[in-house]
Design goal:
Blueprint (H helix, E strand, L loop, with lengths): L7 E9 L10 E8 L2 E6 L6 E4 L3 E5 L1 E6 L8 H6 L4 H15 L2 E6 L5 H8 L7 E4 L3 E2 L34 H13 L5 E4 L18 H13 L4 E5 L2 H10 L3 E4 L5 H10 L2 E3 L2 H7 L11 H24 L19 H9 L3 H7 L2 H6 L17 E5 L25 E6 L2 E5 L11 E3 L6
Parallel strand pairs: 1-4, 1-5, 6-7, 7-8, 9-10, 10-11, 11-12, 12-13
Antiparallel strand pairs: 1-2, 2-3, 4-17, 5-14, 14-15, 15-16
Helix pairs in contact: 4-5, 5-6, 6-7, 8-9, 10-11
């Protein structure tokens, strides 16, 4: 027996941001979905059910290329006191907050085992689609080493458990085995720390991790298994070692010099700046309140150079994708990164592209996600347009893109054609309201 015919959902009359480039401004269009796919984009389309998008921006589902769903607090004492299983429930909540912000896909940069990805795929939890690195690889004394100044060893951020192996490795053969172990456990991407970090207890972000022979083996094993490599990298020596080895993306890239930027541009290596993390670390009313004087000092030292480094990359044409380091920055506040990217020198259209089409390309998902085009998955976000009066040519169906306070303006989130979040804004006059239309809207 055949099932009931799939109904056509029409998103009518919105300003559509296709996500296909960093130059296009929003344009008036209708979008039709059927099942989990976008099937038409154009003017005067029809559907069985209608969402009136007048006064709305219609965005592709947003993509955050650097999150930590299993990270909720940086308070080490609180982590030690928490029951083991609590982190899984917190991760599910963090995933739901992320989805409600309009982020329908994420790359988890350490902490999330394959289980949460499978739970989301099976509909057991609400959350974005997940690619995960599972663990972070670093050497003894590096970013993933939880040895404390007291001599105690407290797992830094992500302790090992079945399905999430410890990430401390030394020498080519240990690295070879660990990469294979992570792939066995279901890693979609390999995450390596090639410099120290701001928050880890016993390293320095200006020190390079791993030697060339170690990174060569890491890349060889990952490449053989078809896994890209993302590199936590703050400063030039580690960044350039990672670039020589052939990583796909530099995460943070806080201190870039001209040689590193030139190498990134020539190789087409992606930069994921995670500006949100730097802001969060220095927020005295946020996570900054739980950090040590040493951690805050390192954060300030790096923040002083971050914007200048990003400008170098922008001017050189380095491909940029959005990532927030959510977990360090608050979960659910992911879209603030877009404003920070604009403040750093990207146009609003290019900043949005960094979170849509560009991010999908980085994650190898461009055939399925990242743009509003027929055949793509129907991940869509409706956002109240608050373009200043006179700033948009609404009569001709076009307008400038404004990313200010974007999270507060999200009204509706669709993932795979299903409405997975509707805010109170959606019920207000002039915002998206769904209704069946038996006469087919035209």
């Amino acid at each position: 027996m055949s099932g009931a015919p799939t109904r056509r959902l029409l998103l009518a009359g919105g300003l559509v941001c296709e996500g296909t480039s960093g130059t296009a401004e929003p344009a008036r269009a209708d979008v039709v979905t059927e099942g989990d796919r976008i099937i038409e984009v154009g003017i005067g389309l029809d559907g069985d059910e209608v969402i009136d998008c007048a006064g709305q921006l219609v965005l592709p589902g947003l993509i955050d290329c650097h999150v930590h769903l299993f990270l909720t607090s940086l308070d080490l004492a609180a982590q030690v006191r928490a029951p083991f299983g609590l982190a899984f429930y917190e991760a599910a909540r963090n995933a739901a907050l992320t989805l409600a912000a309009g982020v329908t896909t994420v790359r988890d940069a350490g902490g999330a085992d394959a289980g949460i990805r499978v739970a989301q795929e099976r509909g057991l939890i609400a959350g974005p689609r997940i690619q995960t690195a599972i663990s972070i690889l670093s050497p003894t004394g590096g970013h993933a080493d939880g040895s404390q100044p007291s001599g105690c060893s407290v797992p830094f951020l992500f302790g090992p458990f079945p399905g999430r192996p410890a990430g401390v490795v030394d020498g080519p053969e240990e690295i070879r085995k660990k990469v294979r172990e992570l792939i066995r456990e279901g890693a979609d991407v390999i995450k390596v720390a090639v410099t120290g970090g701001v928050l880890s207890p016993r390293d320095d972000p200006f020190h390079a991790h791993f030697r060339d022979d170690e990174l060569t083996v890491l890349l060889a094993e990952a490449t053989a298994a078809g896994r890209p490599v993302m590199a936590h990298a703050h400063t030039p020596a580690g960044i350039k070692a990672a670039l020589r080895a052939g990583v796909r993306s530099i995460e943070h890239g806080t201190v870039l010099d001209p040689e590193a930027v030139d190498l990134m541009a020539k190789k087409g290596t992606w930069l994921v700046p995670t500006l949100s993390a730097g802001h969060a670390v220095l927020d005295p009313d946020g996570i900054g309140a739980s950090l040590s004087a040493e951690q805050l000092g390192q954060g300030r030292r790096l923040a002083a150079e971050h914007l200048a480094s990003l400008k170098l990359a922008i001017d050189a044409g380095v491909p940029i994708a959005m990532g927030t380091d959510a977990g360090v920055a608050p979960h659910g506040d992911n879209l603030h990164e877009l404003e920070l990217l604009v403040d750093a020198g990207l146009t609003p259209a290019r900043a949005l592209h960094a979170a849509t089409g560009a991010a999908a390309k980085l994650l190898g998902l461009y055939d399925e996600l990242g743009t509003i085009q027929p055949g793509k998955r129907a991940d869509l976000v409706l956002v109240r347009d608050h373009t200043p009066a006179g700033g948009a040519d609404h009569a001709n169906g076009v307008g400038p893109l404004d990313l200010t306070n974007l999270r507060a303006r999200v009204t509706t989130v669709l993932q795979g054609g299903r409405r997975v979040h509707t805010s109170a804004l959606a019920a207000q006059p002039g915002n998206a309201v769904a209704h069946p239309d038996t006469h087919a809207h035209r």
